[in-house]
Amino acid sequence: MKRFKYITIVVTLSVIMGSCGEDFLNLTPHSNANEEDFFRTQSEIETAMVGAYNSLYTVYGSLGVMYYFGALSSDDAYTDDRGTGAFEEFEIAQTKANNTEILNAWNSFYAAIARINKIIESTESLTFERKDSYIAEMKFLRALYYFNMTQIWGGVPLLTKNISISEAYSTGRASIDQMYEQIISDLKDATQHLSAKGSERSVGVPTKGAAYALLGKVYLTKGNKSEAAATLMNIYNNSYQLATDYADLWDLKKKNGVESIFEIQYMGGASNAPSTIGHCIHRQIILGLSRYKEADIIR
Question: What is the pLDDT of residues 226-257, one digit of tens each?
């Protein structure tokens, strides 16, 4: 009897150990979202898109990427930081290759691009009603970021899908022409599938007018004035007009007005820029109508 019990225990353990295969030992956690089990439904795509839009604050917010390369490099802002000198280099337009904020900017842009590419790739494999418009929203963001990157660095590694670390080592810079080709392609797709202002799925997402406005700006940057004029005429309709009171553009209670084409949606709070940069952001209109007289010379 005792010998029989020993045999039974050994057989039972063998069955248990045999069932502990690789699938059993490498389960993804059910309590947390993870890439392998995510991006499978429209709801999950929408959640991921919130993360993509959050990158707008990283790029444009106080102490964001475009603050260094934009406002701080102009007369609109100043810095009293004399620590590492990283901020001051932007202010006096003498940035060095080892400036840490340049590396942070590069990483911020590509972190955003990686999110966007993952969402586009995942959405393309699904089927739901708003699929094309969701992809168009992300293509608008990708075009916006690559346009900014091209203005800062010229040609950069042009990624429209996520790659492995080993692939990254062998990926070189695209030419400026290749950058603009991709930017224009993304924006043309966006103009076809985004909704008009007032019928977008949520206030703050890019609209058809935003895509036309950015595409027109790209054409102007390239010096293609005829294409720019034809493209920008698409936004001269009842959806956009100059605000009656210029002060409305700075009124926090009048966001997303008639003059606003693409505006970042900030939540309220006390998160203002620290004193290292003498400028605080409360409202940002990334694309909007310009107030020029017919006789003004635009350069």
Answer: 999 999 998 876 578 888 888 888 888 888 88
Read out DSSP for 259-287? TEEEEE-PPPSS-PPPTTBS---S-EEEE
> Measured between alpha carbons, how far apart are the two ends of the chain, in Å?
99
Q: Report the predicted TM-score, pTM, of the whole model to 2 decimal places.
A: 0.80
pLDDT tens digits, 135-148: 999 999 999 999 99
DSSP 3-state of 292: coil
Alpha-carbon span 66 to 60, nearest angstrom: 5
Across residues 95-118, what is the average pLDDT?
91
How far apart CA 68 and CA 257 sit, in angstroms, is: 27
Element spanning 4, H or E: helix 2-19
Distances (CA, A) of 109 to 149, 159, 218, 266: 8, 12, 19, 19
Q: Are strands 260-264 and 284-288 parallel, antiparallel or unpaired?
A: antiparallel
**What are the b/e assignments for 43-77, b being 16+ CB within 10 Å?**
ebbeebbeebbebbbbbbbbbbbbbbbbbbbeeeb
R_g of the chain, CA atoms, integer Å: 25
The rounded Cα 184 to chain-centroid distance in angstroms is 16
Dihedral over Cα of 277, 281, 287, 293: its sign: negative
